[in-house]
Amino acid sequence: MTKNFETLRDRYGIPLEAIVKSDLLRLGVHFTPEALKYSAAFKAKSYFIFSFDRVTQESLSETEKHAAPEEMALIGGPFDFKRTIVSVRLNPKSPYIVIPAEAGIQLFYNNEKICDVTLLERPAYYEKNLANGKPVSDIAPTIEWGYLIYLTAFRLCQYWGKEEECQFCDINENYRQQKKERSYTAVKSIDEILEALSIIQETDTQRTSQAYTVTGGSITSQLNGQAEADFYAQYAEAIEKKFPGRWIGKAVVQALPEDEVQRLKNAGYQIYHPNYEVWDKNLFAQFCQGKDRTIGRDEWIRRVVDAAEIFGPQNVIPNFVAGIEMSQPHGFETVPEAIKSTKKGLEFFMSQGITPRFTVWCVEPNTTLSQTNNNPPPLEYFVNLLQIYRDTFRKYKLPIPPGYGEAGLGKAVFSVSAFMDVL
Ligand code: SF4
Q1: CB of 218 closer than 6 A to ligand 1?
Q2: N vs C: which end of the chain shows fewer Cβ within 10 Å?
Q3: For residues 327 and 370, is the Cβ–Cβ distance under 8 A?
Q4: Contact 311, 272 (CB under 8 A)
Q5: Ligand 1, atom 4: nearest CA belongs to which residue?
Q6: How wide is the angle at C-alpha 162 spanned by C-alphas 159 and 166, nearest 5°?
Q7: How many CB atoms lie within 10 A of CB 263?
Q8: Is the peptide bond before 329 cis (omega within 30 degrees of 0)?
Q9: pLDDT per residue of the chain (423 residues) written in tens, 0 to 9
Q10: Measuring from atom 8 of ligand 1, which residue has the nearest CA?
Q11: Cα 58 to Cα 178: distance, rounded to the nearest angstrom
Q12: Which residues does residue 357 pair with via DSSP β-bridges, in sequence order?
C-alpha cells in the first residue's frame, strides 16, 4: 500500500504526509479499545458542527463516542513524517488503525506501520463549565490544534429535508443524534458565548487560540426575529466589544447581498467564507437544491466576487467540499474530468485574488449523497487536487490565506484538508 502512496507522491509532487492525511480524511480511522483508553486523557472530539464520522453515533461504543480525540498529529515513523495535524473521522471498518505503542500510540495501515501519533493535551478551559452547567466544549470548542474557536451559533439549518438540505451535509441529522449523547445547544446565546470566551481568555495563557469562526445553518426566513446577516453579525459585535482585536473573526454564512456583507464587516468580522461547495453549475443545482432555488448558483458566485470589494479579495475565502463532484450517479466518473471542472473554479477565483479553500468530503451516513454513494472518491483525486490547488495558488502569487496560522509541512494546523500543508 505504501508503494501506492509513493507512486502518487512521485506523480504529483505531493509529500507523503499530505497524502496519508487526505486518505485518513477520506476513509476515517479506527482506534482500538486500548488506544481509546490512552486517548481519553486528551482533548476529545466535540462534534463542533457536522458529525464528520463515517458511521452514526449509534454504531459507536460509548468509549468511541466520548474518548476519541478531536485531532491527531502524525509524526516520525518509517517515513520520518513531519508533524501533520489531521481531524479524526471515526470508522470502525477503516484500514487505518491506531494502536498502543511502547510509549503512546501509533498509526497502522492494515499491517504496515505509518507513523507515531501524538495528541493534544486537554486545554484547561475544557475542564470548565459555564454557570448554567454547559461545558465550554459545547459552547466554544476549539479545533486546528487549539488555534480556532468554533462557534456554531445555530446548530440547525433552515434548508430542511431532502429537497432543501445540501445533499452532502448532515447538520440537522447530526443535531438530532448528538442531542442524545452530549450537551449540544441548538441556538447559542451571546451571553453563553461571551462567558465561554472569558474562560478561554483567562486560561489560554499561551494564546494558542488565534481566531474564531461564527457559523451555523442557513437562515432562510428569520431566527429569533432576525435575518441571517443580523443574526450572525450580533456575535462579532458582542465579541469585539468585549475582547477588541483578541482573535481574528471569521463568518461562515451564505453568499449575501452587498449591504448584508457590509453589515458583517461592520460587525467586526475580518474574514468571510461564502462557501460555494462545488464549482460545476449542474452539480451545484443537484447537490445544493435549497441554495440553488433561493439564491441561484450564478448569483452565489457573483456575490462571492462582490464581497471582495468589501472585505478585500484575500479575506474572502469560500470553501468547497472536495470530492462531491465525483459522487454517483450525478458526478464526474473520472478523476481527470472532476479535476478539470474544479480547476476552472480555482482559476476563476484565484485570478481575481480570491483564495478558495477546501475540506475533504466525509461521506457521512445521515446524508442524501450517502444513500447512493457510500464510497469516497479515489485517493488519486485528492492528491491531484492538492497539486492543482498549489500550482494555481503559486501561478497567481497569492498571499497565504489569513486566519489559518502558519502554512507548510510541519507547521500547518488546518485539519480537514491538506491545503495548508502543501503551501
Ligand atoms: S446550507 Fe447546506 S451545507 Fe450549509 S448547513 Fe445548510 S444544508 Fe448544510
Answers
A1: yes
A2: N
A3: no
A4: yes
A5: 217
A6: 55
A7: 20
A8: yes
A9: 678 999 999 999 999 999 999 999 999 999 999 999 999 999 999 999 999 999 999 999 999 999 999 999 999 999 999 999 999 999 999 999 999 999 999 999 999 999 999 999 999 999 999 999 999 999 999 999 999 999 999 999 999 988 899 999 999 999 999 999 999 999 999 999 999 999 999 999 999 999 999 999 999 999 999 999 999 999 999 999 999 999 999 999 999 999 999 999 999 999 999 999 999 999 999 999 999 999 999 999 999 999 999 999 999 999 999 999 999 999 999 999 999 999 999 999 999 999 999 999 999 999 999 999 888 999 999 999 999 999 999 999 999 999 999 999 999 999 999 999 999
A10: 169
A11: 10
A12: 319
Q: Beta-carbon neighbour count of residue 202 at 10 Å?
A: 11
Cα gap 326→324, rounded to integer Å: 5
Given its phi and psi angles, is residue 43 left (phi above 0), alpha (psi -120 to 50 degrees) or beta? beta
How far, in Å, are 120, 269, 301, 336, 355 from residue 86 at the CA level?
12, 26, 30, 26, 22
Q: What is the 139 CA–ligand 1 centroid distance (Å)?
A: 20
Kindly report the backbone phi and psi dihedral angles of residue 306, in degrees, each rounded to the nearest multiple of 5, phi listed first: -60, -35
Cell numbers describing residue 67: 474518548
| Pocket lining: 166 vs ligand 1, CB cutoff 6 Å | yes
Nearest to 360 by CA among 318, 323, 408: 323
Q: Count the Cβ atoms, other than its own, within 10 Å of residue 411.
A: 15
In the chain, domain spans = 2-118, 125-395
Cα separation, 301 vs 165, in Å, equals 19
Query: How far apart are alpha carbons 355 and 389 in whole angstroms?
Result: 10
Q: Is the CB of 157 under 6 A from ligand 1?
A: yes
Distance, CA of 222 to CA of 142 (rounded, Å): 28
Which CATH superfamily includes the segment(s) 125-395? Aldolase class I (3.20.20.70)
Q: Is ligand 1 within 6 A of the CB of residue 287?
A: no
| CA distance linking residue 77 with residue 115, whole number of Å | 4
Q: Is 321 close to ligand 1, i.e. is its CB under 6 Å away?
A: no
CA of 218 to the centre of ligand 1 (A): 6
